Each structure stands twice: as C-alpha cells, then as structure tokens.
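OP here, attaching both records as promised.
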Amino acid sequence: MRSIRVVGTSWFGFELIFLALTPSNYIEGRETLVMGVPTDVEHLITDAKLMAHIATAVDGRPHVAPVWYGYDDGVLSILTAGKKLENIRQNPKVAVSIEQQTNGNAEWMVSLLGTASVFDGDPVRINEAARDIFPKYLGPDEDSWPEYIQQSLSDDPPEPLVIIEIASATVSWF
C-alpha cells in the first residue's frame, strides 16, 4: 500500500497530520486525503442532490451552514449572503462537507478544503451559476422556482457568487 504523509497547519490553526492513501486504496471505514479532487469523488458530488455544509472562521469563531452547490472540475460554486459571506470576505479559507445517507446511515462523506473568491456585480456569471445549481434541487423549469430563487437570474441578483477552488479532498467510506 502506497501512502503519503502530509504534515501541516489547518486553515483554522490546528496542527494536522494525515496519512493519505492512494485513491485505489479506498477501504470501507477508512479515510483518504488527496490533493485536488479525484475523479471518484467528482462522480459522487457533481450531480448529487445533497446539501453541503460550509465552514468558515473569523477571529477563532467557526460558523457552519447548509448550502446548495454546483461542482465542476475542482471548483465548488454557491450563491450566498449573510454570515457565510461576511466571514468569507474576511477569511477566504473554507471547508465543505457533503454526505450521502440512506435511512440515516452514512454511506460516504467528503470533506473539501479550499479558498473562496466572491464575485459581486457580475450578473451574467451569477445567472450562469444559478442555472447550474438550482435545477439539481428544484428541477429544470425555472418558471416553477420560488420567486426569491428566480431573482438570481435577474440583472441585479440579490446574492453574490462564491467560487471555492478545492485544494484537497478527504473521503470517508462507511
């Protein structure tokens, strides 16, 4: 079994030591840390109609919140406001967790670490992100989406786009 030992400091200030197994070595109940996002993980999260949880931290105070997301080629996209956005503007280092369950039993869980960028005032890009994210959760008929969601398709969308460049992925299989 090939492995890589990665030692460093987390974005939240904790010392980390990971033993990263190669993606082909997934074993039930084991974790694998990979730099970037492996193809196996991309297949799990790209079209999954799952809630993600984003973790931000400012001044040593963590904040975790559920979000709908879009994923494509190492980049996770969300449309958000409030405390999440405020924290990302102050500290762009984020963690995202996505979990698949059946009848309350976890099948797999992915933790993603990355750096977020906020795109305000770019309605075309925000509209494109909305058309990528919302059909997964609400269906393809934009006219049937709630009005507050349809506003993301306007020339003046209410929430900016947050793009998270994923640096590493940890996968847990149960």
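Record two, same layout:
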Amino acid sequence: MTRGAQVCQSADMAATAAATRDGEPRIHMVGIGALKIAAAPEKLRTVLGSCVGIVLFDLHLRIAGLAHSILPQGSEEIEELGKFADQAVDNLVVRLTALGASKTRLRAKLVGGAAMFETANNGAQLGERNVEAARRRFQAHEIPIIAEAVGGTKGRKVRVHPDTGNVEVAIIGSEPVII
C-alpha cells in the first residue's frame, strides 16, 4: 500500500470513528487563537469578527484545517497555533502535509476580518491587517487563495466542509452563502 493510500485509509478510519453517538458527523468548534484539522465527514466551525478564519484544504484527501487568528503576526512560537495569522498559515501547511496532503493540491479560503472597532488614526483596521498577513503567507507558500468573504462591519458564522472544500459563511443576521 502506498503512503498516499495509507493516509487516505487513516483519514477514512478517523472520519468513521468521528461520528457522534447518534451517527451524525462531529462538528468541531475552533475557538479564538485555535487551529484544528478535520477529515470528512467531520466539519469545523467558528464565529468571527475582526479575527480572520484561515481555511486550508486538500480535496483529494478530504481534509481541511481552520485557524481562528486574532492578530496579524507574532514574533515568537506560542502554544496557540492559530493566534497569529502568519504563523497559523505555516502551522496549517505543516499539519496538513504531515497527514499526506500535497502542497500542490492545497487551496485556501479566507473569512472574517471585519472592521469591528473604530481606530483612533486612519490606519488599517485590525481585521484588514489580519487578512493581509494571511494573504502574504499564502503567497510565500505559493498556495492559491480561491475564495474570500472578508471585510465589512459585521461578524460571521463559519462552517467548513472537508469533503467538498465548501465554506458556509453567514453574516450575523443573514442567510449563509457558500464560498
């Protein structure tokens, strides 16, 4: 059995074991500063304001990661793997490739980065800086960002589907859209 087949088999077994007692797939909540990986049929979810949700997935393996980044960049390694957008991108790449994902198959989506707070000066909002930091890191890794739902002034509910790469995004008070 090839390494790729072993990874797929491992991901399938993990996904089968990931069902709740009623048979429904688990939905993992990703908190502020956190980063989680899921294999289909599991799902990932979070709620964002000025934070950026960084999604990275490999459709071939049907795995995805979601980081809930609160700040654009960090200068030190910390336990919260998703806290800083730049480090979160790096951590997602490392974790997904360790599971057998090919960097050439990885695709990214960005969500959130709303302007939730007034700034004293006319500088970039925190949300905008979070999104830009993630964009720069994906560019450095040569991983395409294929969709974004960023900016605005309202928070968003997010649900990631590793089996399809779809990301459901619902601006608070609105119906969800798929990116």
